[in-house]
Write a structure and sequence with these properties.
The complex is a heterodimer. By secondary structure, chain A is an alpha/beta fold. Chain A has a single domain (2-232), classed as 3 Solenoid (Pectate Lyase C-like). Chain A has helices at 10-22, 198-215, 219-223, and strands spanning 2-4, 27-34, 48-54, 64-71, 84-89, 105-108, 129-132, 145-151, 173-179, 191-194, 227-232, 242-243. In chain A, strand 1, helix 1 and strand 2 form a beta-alpha-beta unit. By secondary structure, chain B is of the alpha/beta class. Chain B has helices spanning 2-20, 53-57, 84-88, 111-123, 211-224, 259-264, 291-297, 317-330, 347-356, 376-381, 386-399, 417-426, 435-440, 463-466, 471-496, 518-524, and strands at 39-43, 63-66, 71-74, 94-98, 126-129, 144-146, 167-169, 193-195, 199-201, 228-229, 246-250, 267-271, 282-284, 305-307, 337-342, 361-365, 374-375, 407-411, 430-433, 511-513, 527-528. The chains are: A alpha/beta, B alpha/beta.
Chain lengths: 244, 531
């Protein structure tokens, strides 16, 4: 089913989406999307939604199942508090991509803005996965309590370092894997450097494989690069600040 | 007698160090504490039957039993003054009292000031405390007096006449056009939530308080026809049956927030700030994140549950509007969205922005609002009293002609039905109570909440201590409290000649001030008594 979103208010657009998803539509195509917010918010089910144009903030917020493919760029808050499902962005995404996500997958082909993956968490079988093809601005993975972020550095020029500083500030769970140059000075406090091993490399290979399939990259070539693993030093980074 | 003295001396020294860090985290490497005990445990040996109830009840190791001597004794240095042992002593043998003249009397260097400095010198941390501000800032409720009818207008007898305490929370339409026999609003009517009495239970998360406390609140709210607030810790599976009496909160940590949670509640509340700790976030320490708390918050066990100070998707009123509408989209515009802020200097302008951002309800939490844990310096120094903030917000929204677009809930230090009525007259639609509800469950405001060892079983996730609150009895106590307050409110309304709470809202003519200066009266919008 195709929906022409030109001149449509997000409220009307999302009502159409809710109706279509409640009828278990398998595939929706949104044409001429022009900054409408909240597309896919709170939708459950397995519908695939293709977006042509530029969706607005909070794409897929609280989403619980569907797959969204953006044939273009996404704005801020993409995947905000997402529970399940998948968002694929054939371009870049803005600030706080994946904010507080608890589950689901986000694949961003190019770069992301500030504070991507902030406060991602995990619980039980749920673990959010955020794969960024390019680089990120500061505070990547801030306050991260779980989940996996992969930063591939494919948009960096030869010799260029990743943009993000203060990576993982306040991190107390999960892991960030970084391919491409990242200086130790770019790490936030309480983050330790390591290298992915065994099972972690298998997980990375699986994620990179999925990323490569979405964006026509050569997975093996990406995996041939060196990866760093960033994990928190403590589950309780601020435990010693207080006196009872 | 001599033998007893030599035995007690070394015990006191060793316990003094324990008192500093009750969880024992750092006590082993520290020099003995220089703090002196704040409380005396006085035992009437004539009455004491050695039953050891006090030993079993004390969760701070301040009561002990010496098997060799077959004697129960107190350890003053560990005592927090919560009165649990006193309440449970079957022979009334115990008195726990604050020691007078602990240091040389001084209006500047009070004993609490000296204690705080010593404690920080020993630990190097921020002082953490619980409950609300206990300092002597003015309590404006006590300077406001209510009116009553005499001769020229009749008072109403609430025992004979119907009195309405109902409130509808939510945005009210600009105009209502009535057509024919069936009144139809001209604009679509925004979602409203009916409460039978203008008193709601304030946000107290599972993790901060025990599940039994939340269940007590939930049951009481359901029975009375009001609402309890989950706080930011999610809604436990066991309480999902009380969804119809629930306000679900969304805070910066987004704990337990998913589609099901948002759609369960009657109201979704965005927590921006809290009166006890305006401007800062919250850390639920990892040792309180049990398997059950972890399941409700949907986070790993044992890790700190960190709520950042700001919502990182809200840096402006425009961003707030974005989250408000994200939540409205997520709940299909079926329920009001509330925004809770701490009362601060510019509350009125902030509230105006919140209304324009699309909120249906604003909750304002004043200086004396309580918490499970906050840095003491923040609790005692940041924010403004609810009375002044409430008056300022109501006035401002009226001036701007947007008061109808939002319901106001006042919070932070509501101690009785008199405070409730005064809050309504100052402009509130309803009030939140937190501390008062916990006091109904046994709390004595001893401020040990952050230790997680609450002897009353309230602010703890310890399964042994949590059992001390029985949800059935707890709910009944809360129902009793709300019934008592509601009856009193009806008496006060009737005395003023008013038969519906709505007629009192923002009606400051029914308030007069005593002992306030001109500026304070102007801020509150009330006249001095006698004029």
């Amino acid at each position: 089913m195709k929906i022409d979103a030109a001149n449509m208010h997000y409220r009307d657009l999302n009502r159409l989406l809710r109706e279509a998803v409640s009828r278990s539509a398998r595939r929706l195509e949104l044409q001429n999307v022009f900054g409408q917010r909240y597309i896919g918010t709170n939708l459950a089910g397995t519908t695939r939604i293709d977006i042509y144009g530029t969706p607005g903030n909070d794409l897929g917020a609280f989403m619980d199942g569907p797959t969204i493919v953006v044939h273009g760029n996404a704005q801020d808050g993409c995947g905000n508090t997402m529970n399940e499902g998948k968002i694929v962005v054939e371009g870049r995404a803005g600030d706080i991509t994946g904010l507080a996500a608890r589950g689901g997958k986000l694949f961003i082909r190019d770069d992301v803005g500030y504070r991507a993956g902030i406060h991602m968490k995990q619980y039980d079988g749920k673990r959010p996965l955020l794969v960024i093809g390019g680089t990120a601005q500061d505070f990547l993975g801030e306050y991260m309590a779980g989940g996996i972020i992969v930063l591939l550095g494919l948009t960096l020029r030869p010799g260029e370092r990743h943009k993000t500083n203060l990576v993982g500030t306040g991190m107390h769970g999960g892991a960030i894997y970084v391919r491409g140059p990242l200086d130790e000075r770019q790490l936030g406090e309480g983050v330790q450097l390591g290298e992915p091993e065994g099972k972690e490399r298998l997980l990375l290979a699986r994620l990179v494989g999925e990323f490569a399939r979405h964006f026509d990259y050569d997975a093996q070539q990406i995996m041939a690069g060196d990866f760093l693993k960033l994990t928190p030093v403590s589950l309780r980074p601020y435990g010693d600040l207080y006196t009872d | 007698m001599m033998a007893k003295k030599t035995r007690e001396a070394p015990r006191l020294r060793e316990s003094a160090a324990l008192a500093v860090s009750p969880n024992g985290r750092r006590a082993t490497t520290r020099a003995p504490s220089l703090l002196t005990p704040r409380f005396s445990i006085i035992r009437d040996r004539e009455r004491c039957i050695g039953c050891q109830v006090c030993v079993r009840q004390c969760s701070f190791d301040a009561q002990a039993y010496d098997a060799a001597e077959d004697e129960v004794y107190g350890i003053d240095a560990n005592c927090v003054g919560c009165q649990r042992c006193v309440a449970f002593c079957p022979t009334d043998a115990l008195t726990v009292t604050e020691r007078p003249d602990r240091y040389r009397q001084n209006f500047n260097w009070r004993s609490d000031v000296i204690d705080d400095i010593k404690r920080q010198a020993e630990t190097g941390g921020m002082l953490l405390t619980g409950m609300g501000n206990d300092k002597a800032q003015p309590i404006y409720w006590d300077h406001l007096l209510l009116n009553a009818s005499q001769v020229t207008n009749p008072s109403i007898d609430p025992l004979r006449e119907p009195m309405e305490l109902r409130a509808y929370l939510g945005q009210k339409p600009e105009r209502v056009r009535l057509e024919g026999d069936r009144p139809q609003p001209e604009t679509p009517f925004p979602p409203q939530v009916l409460i039978e009495t203008p008193i709601l239970f304030s946000a107290m998360s599972y993790g901060a308080v025990s599940l039994n406390v939340q269940e007590s609140l939930a049951r009481a709210a359901a029975e009375v026809g009001t609402l309890f607030n989950t706080g930011e810790g999610g809604l436990h599976r066991k309480l999902r049956g009380y969804a119809g009496s629930t306000i679900v909160q969304v805070a910066s940590g987004r704990f337990g927030v998913d589609s099901e949670y948002l759609n369960l509640g009657r109201i979704v509340e965005i927590k921006i700030g809290q009166g006890a700790k305006p401007g800062i976030g919250g850390h639920l320490p990892g040792h309180k994140v049990s398997a059950d708390v972890s399941a409700t918050r949907m986070i790993p066990t044992g890790t700190d549950a960190l709520s950042p100070a700001p919502h990182h998707d809200i840096y402006s009123i425009e961003d707030l509007a974005q989250l408000i509408y994200a939540l409205k989209e997520a709940t299909n515009y079926s329920k009001p969205v509330a925004v809770k802020i701490a009362a601060v200097h510019n509350s009125a302008a902030i509230a105006s922005g919140i209304v324009r951002a699309g909120a249906d309800i604003i909750a304002i939490d004043g200086l004396r609002g309580a918490t499970g844990a906050a840095p003491k310096v923040i609790r005692d120094n940041v924010g403004i009293p609810i009375e002044l903030a409430l008056a300022a917000v109501d006035t401002r929204l009226r001036q701007e002609g947007i008061r109808n677009r939002v319901s106001i809930i006042a919070a932070g230090g509501i101690r009785g039905s008199g405070d409730v009525v005064k809050a309504i007259a100052l402009g509130a639609d309803a009030v939140y109570i937190g501390t008062a509800a916990l006091v109904a469950l046994g709390c004595t405001v001893c401020q040990q909440c952050p230790t997680g060892r609450c002897a009353w079983g309230i602010c703890t996730t310890d399964p042994f201590l949590s059992k001390r609150v029985n949800p059935e009895i707890g709910a009944q106590r809360l129902i009793n409290l709300l019934r008592g307050w509601s009856l009193e409110i009806k008496e006060m309304l009737g005395g003023m000649g008013i038969n519906a709470l709505e007629s009192l809202r923002g009606n400051r003519h029914h308030l007069r001030a005593v002992g306030l200066n001109e500026a304070e009266m102007a801020a509150l919008g009330v006249r001095v008594a006698g004029t």
